[in-house]
Fold this protein.
Amino acid sequence: MTLATDILRRPEAVPRPRRPGMRRPADLVRGLPGGVLVAGALIALYLVMAAAPALLQTHPPFRTDLAATLRPPSLDHLFGTDQSGRDLFSRVVEGTRDSLAIGVGATSLSLTLALLLGVTAGLAGGALDRAIGRFLEVMFAFPNLFLALLLITVFEATPVTLIAAVGIGTAPGYARMVRGQFLAVKGAGYVEAARALGHSRLRILRRHILPNAMRPLVAMITLGVGQSIVWASSLAFLGLGVAPPSPEWGALLDAGRNYVTRAWWLEVMPGLAIIVFALSVTVVGRHVQDRLDGRAGTP
Amino acid sequence: MSAAPSRSRVTGWHRRIARLVLGAAAVFWAVATFTFCVQTLLPGDRAELILNVKAGTFTQPTAAELAQINARYGFDAPLAVQYGRFLGGLVRGDLGTSYQTQGPVRAIIAEQAAPTLLTLSALALAWAIALLLTVPSAGRDGSLARLVSGFQVAAAVAPPYWIGTILLVVLGVKLRLLRVESGTGPAGLVMPAFALAIPLSGFIGQVIREEFARVLDQPFVTSARMRGMSDLAVRVRLVLRHAVLPGVTLSGWALGALFSGAAIIETVFARPGIGGLLVMATSARDVPLVTGIILAAAGLYILANLLVDLAYPIIDPRLRAR
């Protein structure tokens, strides 16, 4: 099963050494493609929703109004209302903080595990590397969701289990990426050059290998948060998520499922919130990745 | 002079197959051991859990009741003996006994052949969509090509259950093109398969696109064009064969993702299947059933990846030299 992964790792993936000096922030924004700008603005909007939901809410998110149940989207209720007459838009805004927290929490856990495994394997090499490689293969054999469900079976469903389940489920993929990155950097010409110049191993590790091997991390974090939110919402959708009063996006999807034939907006709108967020972080993450790989044209 | 090297190549090829098969078996053994550890080391007393699951209550059973359960399930034996029995059972295809129904887990899983059909049809459909969109558009910079590539990026992040819901509402409820409750027949397979296939086609399409664009720049493609080969023929007959390799790798991986997706999609369409079974077993804490389903899925995943590895040298003859 090793061949399958080696095919994807092409020699071009060897990153170029970091260019000295940072560009000024203004220069960073000016050359950006339109799509990346829109995605960045949307992410900023989500952050506002998480930090200060009251700024954007049009109605109190928990106030029921039995005279206006299951109303379709209108100017008054942007996303419509649910079975208790609560304004869905305000609830989606209210749920942003919990949803993002789950995504960030799961990604942090996942990347911590991935770094521990990937860096150890990449640096140690030899038998330890092979052992970690085998371990990752075993982890890959478990479908993500099934691994998450196994954890929930054993430890019962709580927000912490949910974060742990998503984090552990997505860790092997990142670990494999980190390990591959380390191997690519270790074999790069500039590392060889540093070795030939007689630099100490520690210096080569600190000044050349670590900074270059860690560069895709920025992109991995952004891509990971989006994916984690999608995963966590899938679990919540199955009724295995956070407790009902929280209007976390996945919980909103789960609650809307029983009304889907009568009120499509209960399902479509929270899903749209998830997709737009995941898409925005993906677009930004890819742009960062391309820039760091030196593939996108520099302005 | 020609016989000796060719024979050594054949034995080398056989050795490679043997190594791949042994590696796959080792991974499956590790997966099985992991699930065994989860079953035995999980917090709480198993006999107590079984009694509670059976009765549907949370009471403290008496010592006599616990002893009876422990004896019946062999929980009183040393762990090493239990492990040996577990592996012995696996070799014979025995996955243990469900806490809920008290029936063999294998029989419960065997009733659910349909989800495998759903995953496989979704995989085939995803390839069809990805190829249809990517082959004509890869390596081009027109607005249509950009639109297609943008669609693939968006499709890849869309959760299958959400697409399933949209299909259900638009096609089933608003337009009444497809019956919402189509049951388990082939007609009921259409919407779930599309819901699973669209995000996966986004992934596969993006991977193929990148490789496709790279291969289009290769000298052999230019020389074929100079020989007067049409653009479509170049794309389909020359470039595609190179570009599908990463997609094939992805398909092995995707099978695992499809199992996860299928479990959720079945809930959306209220289809009976392995997903509903798994979710039910999870909320009831029926550990043998959960681990049984996971073992079955992991086994299929390992088998699929073994096939992918074996398929490489057939798709790309250059790899036979390795």
